[in-house]
Specification:
Elements (H helix, E strand, L loop, with lengths): L2 E3 L4 H9 L2 E6 L7 E6 L3 E5 L2 E7 L5 H8 L2 E7 L7 E11 L6 H5 L8 E15 L15 H21 L11 H4 L3
Antiparallel strand pairs: 1-8, 2-3, 2-6, 4-5, 5-8, 6-7, 7-8
Length: about 180
């Protein structure tokens, strides 16, 4: 078992800032557990006990639906170069949509994107650092531009239409509240 902490240390925060990919896991009390890779310039450490990450439009909307039912969330970072380390932040998450009062407070932290769908705030209860000695080395080449190109082609109206068609429910049928809370 790794070392556990009640909050992120300055070393943890520095490690997180250097990562190009992270993973988010959520689950309702029943149904499918979701684990999603995230990348790009979409994560901010607000302080030692709070992480914010910007969720872009995607084919599913599991994290939002799960957090509404059960706010548990784990965010995991892995060293794919340099010294081995796997860092997990466990806690309780809150989902913000464009129609929520706190949206404007946090959206300014991220690059502008027509694909911005939700912001998640993770209130960290526990941090675990473990060795990660079996995680392979990988080299970062670049961020993918596919989502940005697709989103720009859709424009705001097309993205919102996509949310209505594809993002209102999780794969288990749980509501995401995207239509109601985004003012659609």
């Amino acid at each position: 078992m790794g070392k556990q902490f009640s909050e992120l240390s300055p070393m943890h925060i520095e490690f997180i800032a250097a990562q190009k990919i992270y993973f988010v896991s959520t689950a309702a009390d029943t149904g499918t557990v979701n684990l999603s890779p995230k990348g790009g310039d979409s994560l901010r450490v607000i302080n030692s006990t709070t992480i914010a990450w910007l969720n872009h439009t995607g084919s599913g909307n599991e994290s939002a639906a799960h957090v509404l039912l059960n706010p548990r969330m784990t965010v995991m970072f892995c060293a794919f170069e340099g010294s081995p380390l796997t860092l997990r932040a466990y806690g309780s998450a809150k989902v913000l949509h464009k129609g929520d009062a706190q949206w404007n407070e946090y959206i300014e932290l991220f690059p502008e994107s027509v694909a911005s769908r939700q912001i998640f705030l993770l209130d960290i209860a526990k941090v675990q650092a473990s060795c990660g000695m079996s995680v392979p080395y990988f080299s970062y080449e670049s961020d993918r531009k596919d989502l940005a190109k697709w989103s720009e082609k859709q424009d705001k109206a097309g993205i919102e239409k996509y949310w209505v068609k594809k993002n209102q429910q999780s794969i288990d049928g749980f509501e995401s509240e995207i239509v109601e809370r985004s003012g659609l």
